[in-house]
Amino acid sequence: LRAIEATGAYVRFQNSLPDDIKELATIVLARFWGAQYEWYAHARLALQAGIEPEIVEAIRKGEAPKELTPAQAAVYNFCVELSGSHAIHDQTFEAVASRFGTRGVMDLIGICGHYSMISMILNVAQVPTPDGSVPLAPIKRAK
Predict the structure, then answer these.
(1) How many CB atoms lie under 10 A from the CB of residue 51?
(2) How far apart are CA 34 and CA 129, in angstroms?
């Protein structure tokens, strides 16, 4: 538990990435995992950090946002690609590295790993949102 708390403190407060980029990455991971509570908490923080409401809403719906800045697009694509294929193409890596450096890439990977783990924990524990809402439609199982 202490290791998870320490990782969380680094990811949230000592990470080299700007707050809007951290929160964008976090909501992408929350959406990927369908983590209701994580989404509930971080969608608000993403808006407070300056992420446009249209971007947050598109991600909530499971759609690719249309109006991303180049930095946001680099981070969004990195998170989606890493979560979906478990690998990163050179072009995707370079789009993040050229903006945020090697430390930024490592910090982004840290966000992806940490919030994947937190989302899984919350999902297994079936932690509801404080207001009882279900903001994310579940991803359908294959038949």
Answers:
(1) 22
(2) 12
Closest CA to 44 of 72, 21, 23: 23
Say what the pLDDT of residue 44 is. 96
Query: Do residues 14 and 114 touch, judged by C-beta distance below 8 A?
Result: no
pTM for this predicted structure? 0.93
- Token pair 């109006």: residue: 67
pLDDT at 137 (0 to 100) = 82
Query: Crossing angle of helices 19-33/70-85, nearest 10°?
Result: 30
Distance, CA of 116 to CA of 95 (rounded, Å): 22
The DSSP string of 17-63 is S-HHHHHHHHHHHHHHHT-HHHHHHHHHHHHHTT--HHHHHHHHHT-
Q: pLDDT tens digits for 104-139?
A: 999 999 999 999 999 999 999 999 899 998 888 876
Mean pLDDT of 25-42: 95
- How many Å apart are CA 57 and CA 67, to the nearest integer? 12
Cα-based torsion angle of the residue sequence 67, 70, 72, 77 in order, rounded to the nearest 10 degrees: 100
Tell me if 67 sits within 8 A of 82, measured CB to CB: no
